[in-house]
């Protein structure tokens, strides 16, 4: 967010959102007095939940995420605290793929790092919040092939899966669809809860 252009873009986006909320409130009020409040509460509740989720994820990420190289193995702990270990002599290579099209302005947020062992099992994680220079130095110390990861060219997920037989979680192979599905479910649940609350207490 240090780039002035991105800050200006965020301000414009917030102004647009405010205008949209006011227009939506006015439209609902014109149709049925009082319904505009329910609309604003629904949208407000959605954004509050999204902000809470983002904050919780960020706190968990910086608290739990670790990548440790020992003489015998590579240890990865994700934002949920789940730890996976991979023996160094079993690592076949370190690769990467694009799994996002809209990065939200975060550098390398669209890059998925994939560490593959000889059996096709993998450790995968988004590289957006990791220092890329430190990761590159880690792969060099690891000693496994990492030319594809170091290359400036990053294949899209579909192309990556076509050339690599790697078992990846569903939320990495179809990340955008997964996020849309979860987001839709959360949105419907919030709107339904607000409607029930308005009916009961309005």
Topology (elements, then pairings):
Elements lengths: L3 H28 L3 H30 L1 E4 L3 E5 L5 E5 L3 E8 L12 E7 L4 E5 L5 H11 L4 H4 L6 H7 L6 H4 L1 H27 L1
Antiparallel strand pairs: 1-2, 2-3, 4-5, 5-6
Helix pairs in contact: 1-2, 2-7
Descriptive overview:
Helix 1 packs antiparallel against helix 2 (35-64) and helix 2 packs across helix 7. Strands 1-2-3 form a three-stranded antiparallel sheet, with no helix packed on it. With 202 residues, it is of the alpha+beta class. It has seven helices and six strands; from the N terminus they run H-H-E-E-E-E-E-E-H-H-H-H-H. The longest helix has 30 residues, at 35-64. A hairpin with a 3-residue loop joins strand 1 (66-69) and strand 2. Helices cover 55% and strands 17% of the residues. It is elongated, with a radius of gyration of 22 Å.
Output the keywords.
alpha+beta; 55% helix; 3-stranded antiparallel beta sheet; 6 strands; 202 residues
């Amino acid at each position: 967010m240090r780039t002035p252009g991105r800050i200006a873009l965020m301000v414009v986006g917030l102004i647009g959102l405010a205008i949209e909320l006011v227009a939506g409130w006015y439209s609902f009020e014109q149709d049925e007095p009082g319904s505009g409040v329910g609309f604003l509460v629904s949208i407000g509740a959605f954004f509050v939940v999204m902000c809470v989720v983002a904050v919780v994820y960020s706190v968990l990420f910086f608290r739990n995420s670790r990548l440790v190289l020992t003489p015998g193995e590579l240890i990865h702990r994700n934002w949920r605290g789940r730890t996976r270990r991979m023996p160094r002599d079993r690592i076949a290579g370190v690769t990467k793929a694009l799994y996002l099209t809209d990065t939200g302005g975060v550098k390398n947020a669209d890059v998925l790092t994939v560490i593959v062992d000889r059996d096709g099992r993998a450790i995968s994680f988004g590289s957006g919040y990791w220092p890329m220079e430190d990761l590159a130095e880690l792969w060099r110390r690891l000693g496994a092939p990492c030319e594809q990861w170091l290359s400036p060219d990053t294949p899209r997920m579909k192309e990556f899966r076509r050339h690599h037989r790697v078992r990846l979680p569903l939320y990495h192979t179809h990340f955008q669809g997964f996020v849309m599905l979860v987001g839709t479910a959360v949105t419907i649940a919030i709107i339904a809860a607000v409607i029930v609350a308005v009916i009961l207490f309005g």
